[in-house]
Amino acid sequence: MGFQTQPKEFEYVAPASLEEASKLYLSYGEKACLLAGNTDVIPLMKRGLLAPECVVDITKIPDMSYIRVEDSVLKLGALTTIETIRKSPLIEQNYRALHMASEEMGSTLIRNIATVGANICRASPASDMVPPLMVLEAKLKIFGPKGIRTIPLEDFFMGFGKTKIEVGEILYEIEVATSPDKQAFMKLKRTKEDLAKINISTAFNFSDGKCAGIKIALGSVAPKVVRAERTEKFLEGKELSEETVEEAKQIIHGEIDPIDDVRSTADYRREMSKVLLGRVIKLALKGGE
Amino acid sequence: MATKFSTYITVKVNGRQHGLEVRNNWTLLKVLREVLGLTGTKCGCDTGDCGACTVIMDGKAVPSCLVLAPQADRKEILTVEGLAEGGKLDPLQEKFVEKGAYQCGFCTPGILMSLKALLSEKPDATQDDVKKALDGNLCRCGAYPRILELFPRGEWQ
Fold first, then answer.
1. What is the pTM for the complete model shown?
2. What is the mean pLDDT of chain A?
3. Mean pLDDT in chain B?
4. How far apart are CA A279 and CA A188, in angstroms?
5. A208: contact with B, CB 8 A cutoff
6. B25 and A6 in contact by Cβ < 8 A?
7. Which residues of B touch A (CB under 8 A)?
8. Chain segment B8-20, per-residue pLDDT in tens
9. Considering only CB atoms, which chain A residues are within 8 Å of B121?
10. How far apart are CA A133 and CA B131, in angstroms?
11. What is the distance between the alpha carbons of residues A41 and B67, in angstroms, rounded to a whole number?
């Protein structure tokens, strides 16, 4: 990689509305690339791994960055930066898993421009935003030539870097309708800024000493972020004692499909999925402190 | 010169308005250094991980190697050259000089910009705030302790 490497030449458009952006994207088709957070797309373009003929910059579309709650439903604009999410008291108090993930992602510089929508659409299994949003049962609102559609986040990914987004479509909002009492996120990484060797998030309600509606998601352990459904089923309604969680650990490592790569080995990831399950549940029970 | 691979932008840099024709595949970093001659901002990793290219764009510290040149249209940029006013150093720069909070100086412009952005938002920033604000600025010479000492201690120290 060189000093100030340059991507291949491309046309650049910065539409002022979702409608305009969708039309432009549709007209260029597969030759276009949407640009939002920049932090992954630009390095890929510099390395020649992405060479669009046209870049459709959606960052100039107004009203795409917001954090609000309407009728108990959290609505996040797709262009909300990770740093904005990190600094939001509303998210810190009621959507703690998401807050904790925003604290662990990249650096201040990266968080200042990276967006939650782009992080999701990049469909990296190492995403820090996806596991907490997945355990919070997020729904994605997508604008396209055929109108608006809603896709549950857990159904959105088709594989590494692949989503159900079709040409001409743009993610514009993320909705979270639940706010469970116990939530947490943990990430194992080499340095402060690094991508996850493995990350994990959980959310559940807790009453009478038993958990209800428990959800668990892990990243960097398969081509897509994984919902540990068998582990969830096992823990559902139970007391989350040391013994129960020990048993759950024996299930979770069988639900993932990790590989050896520059950041870690499959063996280590399998081992850590067990360790992190125990730790993230403890952390959630303590209120995510 | 206007081709389909270039864009005309107007951008304010250190208080001065510029009208520029930029290639779409250039970064803001390249425009600052090679078009405007503001070589204070450095290129380290070129991938947004080292912070040497940090500038303040519309009030936020950003890695200029990750911002495409056409995206700078109608933005306000502050680079390290813009910190001093009328030949007088910014108080932050004065403190750096006084305490020798640098060694080779390569990371220093980026660090100054990250700190300037922090102080603009939180004038009473503590060492804890500084650690967070500088989490994307790498200093291989290890000047961090002297940088931290410029700030009041935080809760956890």
1. 0.96
2. 96
3. 95
4. 12
5. no
6. yes
7. 4-5, 7, 23-27, 29-30, 43, 46-49, 51, 54, 60-63, 65-68, 70-71, 73, 114, 132-137
8. 999 999 999 999 9
9. none
10. 27
11. 11
